[in-house]
Amino acid sequence: MKPSTQASRLLQGAFILSAAAIISKLIGTLQKIPLQNLGGDAVFGIYNTVYPLYTLFVTVAMLGLPVAVSKFVAEAAAGERKEAGQQILLKSAVMTGLSGVIMGIVTYTGAPLIAEWIGNSHIIAALRTAAWGLVFVPVMSALRGYFQGLHNMVPTAMSQIVEQSVRVAVMIVLLLHLTSREAGAEAIAAGALLGSAGGGIAGLFMMLLYWRRHHVRMEGSAKGRVGRDLLSQVVKTRRLLSYGVPVMLGALAVPLIGLVDVFTLPRLLAAGGNEREAMVQFGVYNRGLPLVQLVTMLATSLSVVFIPALAEANYRGDSKLIEIRCRLSLRWFWLLGLAASVGLAVLAEPINVALYGNAAGTGAMAWLAFTAAGGTVSIISAALLQGLGFVRAPALHLLAAALLKAALNLLLVPQQGITGAAIAGVAAHLFAAALSVLLLRRKARLRLRPADVLAKPALLVAGLGLAAAAASWGADALLAAAGLAGGRAASLAQSLLGVTAGCAVFAAGAVALRLLSEDELRQLPGIGPSLAKLMKKLRLFP
Question: I need a surface site. Which of 89, 185, 307, 373 has the fewest CB within 10 A?
């Protein structure tokens, strides 16, 4: 394959995979709103306690092998050793399958013990239904890694969308069925978690269809015999694990801050002895998370373009380009995260009522909104560090932030309840971001001017917050005069008008304050040059 053709195929694959990831994450994030609406806060609390544990167990069960499979299959394909690639997949499928079954059995039988560690017995049934997903998802992920190693991203993309769609569909059907029968919160949450198994089965079935088609095509085109030295070409199990396990350990660092809440909040909130009320409060606390996750999801999707761009600049030794790209990306991710935080905080009450039906936990939601600011900076700084070759540093920073979160939870939750947990989350995310930015500043020799980082952003988000609040309050006054205030529809109107006003002021303010020049915009990888050309046509640059 010609280098230009291979590069084009890689770019196309990256686009397909990114688009599928955004769609599947969007489905997974937004499904939490009907879950709370149909099941209530107690069900929402149980679900948000168990699902992070489920994703943790899936990560462990995969052993990092999907990434290892992708790497070694790509090497085998480059050497035209197709049989070796299939053997790699076979070994990995067996290992992830066994690991998934073992993790499923341990989770199912150990559910009472896990519930005891967390401090709430209401999660036992949900843990046991979630355990079924562990049987299917790891093998599905190994198959995804195989096709990614062949630079064919379509199977992974399609299976991601199918998995999430079926998971949410099964969850909603079971929610409707169980709520109509007036089942308890534990049973409803268990039904919702069974969607993970349904999604895993559907995703695995999709991957097996792609594998069957691929295998038939390979058999039809195969010529010659398998070499005697095939076994020497096959990656040994030990080599797969030696590559995969460190990847798995690195992946475990990402959800650490959220897991701290899982292992501390239910016990702290149930200090008075009422475990069910603790789950209700934990559900209320998690109301703001889907909105914050939409912001961080966007940040994650945008950050991936910086890793290869920065790696290329680092390889060429272009320190000036490295400094410019790091400075610009940090500035704009900080601005976007800060703007989202202020907007969500100002509009917390109408958003809460519009999405969840009442204003419970509005104070905690307003505080939780500010985790978007630290979270976006943490995400982009981690991507920049990885592009420069510092792969372990972001994981260590997240570990340090998780320890801070645990300490602050123990200190603040007994006094302030879920609001204290939200404040602890803000501090933890900002701490992780600060550690990564300080390392970047030293390694990339960043020159961060206070006016660009503090003064101008503060002025911009102040205008955004005032505009959003004024639009929301104005809409509330008009609706009250018309006798339409107080319902979810009215709150939705307030929220939408507030968001629109805030976005308009943010865009106008960014141009007026000259936070980005034409030359700087052109330095951004990917869409930078095209965006600069468009803004120049619109005469937005001085």
Answer: 307
